[in-house]
Design goal:
alpha/beta, 9-stranded mixed sheet, 6 helices, 13 strands, globular
């Protein structure tokens, strides 16, 4: 397979190294185009008001391309200017940190995968559910295993996969589950601090609150040691709300 590999953690990320090597060892042809620095939580942002630049760099894994933009910039840059033909698949990751529940709305990793599917390329976002002491082997192994299978899934138009892998060694992974998107909110996530010289400032953080309306929610499955695979659709329309909205609008 010809695979476009991007991420939001930048060119120096260990997760990029893990995905790149696992895919190369499985015999796939990889083109890497990633941000030149960490771009976490940029969602689906694109660069509009400054020049977008690309350069080729040497890495420990081989030649790659970097841009000064976001993951959603890297994908069309590769598709339109760096690849002679469209890839069979785009993989965004492996991200350091989960992208569960409402995280998908903020995630640059997910934004990269979404941009690919909007350009007609099957895609997958993949994340390791930890922020410290990462164990990359299981995520890299699953990345290589699922890549050739995505084309067999016959996903609907504008649909891609969001994969989250527990931070476990492969022997401790309990299996794979197809999941729905749960809810993950951050309570009190803008915290005020006082610095001696600069004075008042604020930092994003807060308590993580997971909620699930069904037993197959990604936030639940991952806690049981399973890999979570969630089909994500670009269309955010809540269709069961349309009738009620239309009924009210008749009076305007």
């Amino acid at each position: 397979m010809k695979i476009l590999l991007t991420n939001d953690d930048g060119i120096g990320a260990d997760g990029l190294h893990a995905a790149w090597n696992a895919l190369k060892n499985a015999g796939h042809e990889i083109l890497v185009c990633v941000p030149d620095r960490p771009r976490s939580a940029v969602s689906h942002a694109i660069t509009m008001h400054k020049p977008l630049r690309v350069k080729q760099v040497e890495t420990r894994d081989g030649l790659a391309y970097t841009t000064n933009g976001t993951p959603a910039d890297c994908v069309p840059m590769a598709l339109l200017h760096l690849m002679p033909q469209a890839p069979d698949l785009c993989i965004s990751g492996i991200n350091l940190g989960p992208n569960l529940g409402d995280d998908v709305h903020y995630s640059g990793t997910v934004g990269g995968a979404m941009e690919a599917v909007l350009n007609g390329v099957p895609s997958m976002a993949i994340s390791l559910v930890t922020h410290k002491d990462p164990l990359w082997h299981a995520a890299g192994k699953f990345c290589a295993q699922i890549a050739p299978k995505i084309g067999e899934m016959k996903l609907p138009r504008d649909t891609f996969l969001n994969v989250n892998v527990p931070n476990l060694v492969p022997a401790d992974i309990q299996g794979v589950r197809v999941t729905s998107q749960g809810s993950r909110r951050y309570k009190g996530d803008l915290v005020r601090y006082e610095a001696p010289v600069v004075g008042e400032y604020f930092w994003r953080g807060g308590e993580v609150i997971d909620r699930a309306e069904s037993d197959d929610a990604d936030v639940l499955v991952i806690k049981d040691g399973f890999i979570s695979v969630t089909p994500i659709h670009v269309d955010l329309t809540r269709r069961d709300a349309m009738e009620g909205v239309a009924a009210v609008l008749k009076g305007i």
